[in-house]
């Protein structure tokens, strides 16, 4: 399972604090941690129109947005079986990239 898939699972189970590194627990403000994860999940939405622009992200991080929208399932966990807790070697998404180099 990818880190994104793991974070999404914790989001849906309302257990985001389980994602925090133990060394940060005494120094990190829980609300800010959850806010950053919420914004991160908004930035990886399947539909680009559901993703915030960078200027909106900055406003969200600066605290100008009080109520953040709840994210939908991220693009890279669409194929994830929510009932399965075991990992597999299957990709969670299929992305194709073609690079072409030509002489000038």
Summarize the structure in words.
- It is a single chain.
- The relative contact order is 0.16.
- Residues 80-87 have low confidence and may be disordered.
- With 104 residues, this protein is an all-alpha fold.
- The chain has helices at 3-12, 30-42, 54-62.
- Residues 81-104 have a biased composition (Polar residues).
- GO terms for molecular function: protein serine/threonine kinase activity.
- Residues 77-104 are annotated as: Disordered.
Any chance you could write out the topology, listing elements then pairs?
Blueprint: H1 3-12, H2 30-42, H3 54-62
Poorly predicted runs of 5 or more residues = 80-87
Give me the number of helical elements.
3
Element string (H = helix, E = strand): HHH
- Supply the number of structural domains: 1
- The rough form would be described as globular
The total strand number stands at 0
Helix share bin: 25-40%
Mean pLDDT across the residues is 81
β-strand percent reads under 5%
What value does the Rg take, in angstroms? 17 Å
Major sheet characteristics: none
User: What distance lies between the first and last C-alpha atoms, to the nearest angstrom?
Assistant: 43 Å
The class by helix and strand makeup works out as mainly alpha
